[in-house]
Specification:
Layout: H1 7-18, H2 23-30, H3 34-41, H4 47-50, H5 59-74, H6 81-95, H7 103-109
Length: 113
């Protein structure tokens, strides 16, 4: 099984390539697929960064929502799915948007929840 790689690994591999290391060697040394490095060299964004504009709420608002959930949990009053959804809808309504499904996006992107 291959070791998962991080954005730091990709950055280190790109730095090594810029320093003269071959792409094949960098891929092997840092455990990153060749297509991933090739795409990054050609200016492609990571999936996470590339999909940010598809999110229902902005990342800063998502972090605020997550912090509110954590504070409520620390106070012993963990919010329900409905309460979280209603707060998400309120955030979107302030911006003139609407919400289809805020929970899956928030829970996947904020693993501490």
């Amino acid at each position: 099984m291959t070791k998962p790689y991080t954005e730091d690994d990709i950055a280190a591999a790109l730095f090594a390539i810029a320093g003269g290391m071959s792409m094949r060697k960098a891929c092997s040394e840092y455990g990153i697929p060749r297509t991933t490095l090739h795409n990054r060299i050609n200016g492609h964004l990571s999936h996470k960064k590339g999909a940010q504009n598809l999110q229902k709420i902005a990342p800063v608002q998502e972090r605020a929502l997550a912090n509110w959930i954590l504070v409520q949990e620390a106070l012993g009053t963990s919010p329900t799915h409905r309460q979280i959804r209603e707060l998400g809808e309120s955030i979107l309504n302030l911006e003139g948007g609407n919400i289809k499904s805020i929970m899956p996006v928030s829970m996947v992107q904020l693993p501490k929840l």
